[in-house]
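Q: What would this chain look like folded?
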Amino acid sequence: MPVIHGLVRRPLIFTLDALARYPMESQITFLECAGNGSDLYEPDPVDGTAQTLQGLISCAEWTGVKLSMLLDEAGVDPRAQWLLAEGADAATMSRSIPLAKAMKDGMIALYQNGERLRPSNGYPMRLLLPGYEGNMNIKYLRRIKLVEEPAMSFWEARTYAQILPNGKAYQFYLLQEVKSFITQPSPGLTLKEPGLYEISGIAYSGTGRIAKVMVSADGGRSWADAALQEPVMSKAFTRFRMPWRWDGGAAILQSRAWDEAGNVQPTRPEFVAKRGELKAVPPVGAVLNQHFNAITSWGVDSVGEVKHVYA
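A: My prediction, written as structure tokens:
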């Protein structure tokens, strides 16, 4: 049962039974680990499937109680600008969250795809912050403390504070940026013979709806608009599709997405110039490379085998 305390007029405890009597709402949204795609920071292409390279993500319908409703009931002190959310897991996962985000679309989620949360997804309740990096969506939520400034917990001061090439920390940038990747064809699959195929994949953005996806079969030298499958929803997977005739020669498949705010996926060289390449932090070897959203390239060879490549 979560506690709301700190800079509020009256601290409150919300039991599971109490929350079940509040008005609920549902939202379809993606949930992505901040480290999804971290292998793509490697200086050389990684041998892996789309699942192993880009699979730390899901999209589901979440149902629960608006966080703003509970915060309003507790009475937010005007001094409060952030909240510290803490989980009851063994790691005591805790993250500082801007109050404005919590009030905008934060949710205490009780259901996923119409069923009660499973233990692996945070039963009995978890925090849901659409578009924010996965670790912010605290599982096994047990308390929310309203505070004036970020708490600088272990997780946000170290683990989720990537060091950039200029020596500064990439800290408190919490949105999962616009991204896409091709799922068909992709590594692990083989094209059996020349002919007509469909290039398909998913695109999403923590900012809002996907506005456009373009696909290239020649490593980015030429591009064409892909069709977006309806419905195109905010902060949710959008499936894109394009017919492609493979002539049996080598090809490099890429996708590039734009969101409704005008953000666009960077090329990998553009991304690496700003964020650097793979860095391991001693002594435990924790990798501080997150938020990979650059264009991902799949190479097709003359026998139809698909592999991860850099272009």
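Confidence is low (pLDDT under 50) at residues 282-287.
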